[in-house]
Structure formats: C-alpha cells, structure tokens
Amino acid sequence: MDQHKRRKRRELQAQYDILSEKILVLRQAHAAEADPSRRFQYQEQIGQTEAERDALLGQLKELERRRWRLALALFLLLLAVAILIMSVIAAANSLGGLKILDGPTPSRSILVTGEQTQVVVSARGGGLTFVWSADNGVVNPAGPTGRSVITYTAPHFPGQDVIYVEVRDNQGHTADSQTIVSIVEEGP
After folding, report:
1. Per DSSP, what are the bridge partners of residue 90?
2. DSSP of 41-91, one letter per residue?
3. What tens-digit pLDDT sequence spans the chain (188 residues)?
4. Contacts by residues 16-23 (CB-CB < 8 Å, ≥ 24 positions apart)
5. Cis peptide leading into residue 141 (ω within 30°)
6. CB 97 within 8 A of CB 124
7. pTM of the predicted model, to two decimals?
8. Measuring CA to CA, which residue among 145, 143, 161, 159 is closest to residue 106?
9. What is the C-alpha to C-alpha distance for residues 23 and 48, in angstroms, rounded to an integer?
10. Residue 113: alpha-carbon gap to chain centroid
11. Distances in Å between the alpha carbon of 34 and those of 24, 25, 45, 87, 104?
12. Burial, 163: exposed, middle or buried (Cβ in 10 Å; 0-12, 13-18, 19+)?
C-alpha cells in the first residue's frame, strides 16, 4: 500500500473513531435527558452521526477490499511467472536440453609416458553424470561420476590415446565426445 493510501486509511479511521465517540456521548446524553423534545433531537443527531460513521465504514471496507485484491493479483502474477519459468526450464531439459558445449579438453595434449593432466568437459542439462574412459591411459575417477573434471594418467608407452566422455542427464539423454592426446617418451 503506498503512502497516499495509508494516509487516507488513517484519516478515515480517525474520523470513524471520532464519530464513534460522538455517538457514545450522544447516547449517554439521550439516556440522561428527561425533556422529550431534547431526547428527540439527540435521537436525530445519533441517527445522522451513525449514518456518517457507516459511510466511513463503507469507505474503510472498500480500501481493505482493494488492498486484498491488489495483494491477490500480485500473488497470482508471481505464481504465473514462477510457473512460466519452471515450464521453460522443463522444456529446455526435455527438448534435448543435454548438450556438450566444449571438450573434453586436456590441460596438455602432449604428455610424457606416465604423466598426468586434467581433462575438462563443459555440458548443459539437468542432473548430469559423466562417464569417463580412455583406450590406454587411466582416468580418475573412473566410471559414472558427477565430476566434469578428471585426472588422466598417460600409459607407460608412446603413441596416441583417446579419452572418452559420455554425459547423461536425468531425462535419460546421452551425449558423448572424445579427444586425442599424444604420448612421448621422456628425452635423454
């Protein structure tokens, strides 16, 4: 509720309270009055003041209804946005949202026999699992892992080796990629 509406509500509430107090005083005076014409005047004033107070009460209730309608509209808007975001995310994941963006890429592509290097893959999707393997070298960790970075240890003989990665998401999609590293013997 903005400042203007808060001020308006406070003003209406203050007027309502003043009229309620006035009605109480008029009723006490009416009860204490013995003169019928004065009692009639008090009764008329009570009726007019109650009508004014009822009109203020109507305005206060309308302000409250508007406030609640605004709060409900805001809540429904936020709910709709949340549902939209969730459906976009679900659609992205279910429409082949799994994708290998880059890699696997070793830190170094030429290694000495037995040497280690980090290998990284970048993928997009939900609940990704990576399955790493190599033709001759050793990957750590081996088998299914939640890690997109592994350590590769070159074999103890020269040549080329292929490092593979298969990426799986929580929707059952898979994507795979590979890279080649060259293994050389250590020089004399």
Report:
1. none
2. HHHHHHHHHHHHHHHHHHHHHHHHHHHHHHHHHHHHHHHHHHHHHHHHHHH
3. 578 888 999 999 999 999 999 999 999 999 999 999 999 999 999 999 999 999 999 999 999 999 899 999 999 999 999 999 888 776 655 555 677 777 788 989 899 999 999 999 988 888 888 999 999 999 988 767 767 889 999 999 999 999 999 998 888 888 889 999 999 998 66
4. 16/53, 16/56, 16/57, 16/60, 19/49, 19/52, 19/53, 19/56, 20/53, 22/49, 23/49, 23/50, 23/53
5. yes
6. yes
7. 0.48
8. 161
9. 10
10. 50
11. 18, 16, 17, 76, 102
12. buried
Decide: helix, strand or coil at residue 142: coil
What integer pLDDT is reported at residue 90 of this predicted model?
65
Round to whole Å and give the CA distance between 135 and 157.
13
Q: Which residue has the tokens 């790493």?
A: 132
Check if the beta carbon of residue 116 is closer than 8 Å to that of residue 159.
no
Contact 94/72 with Cβ under 8 angstroms?
Answer: no
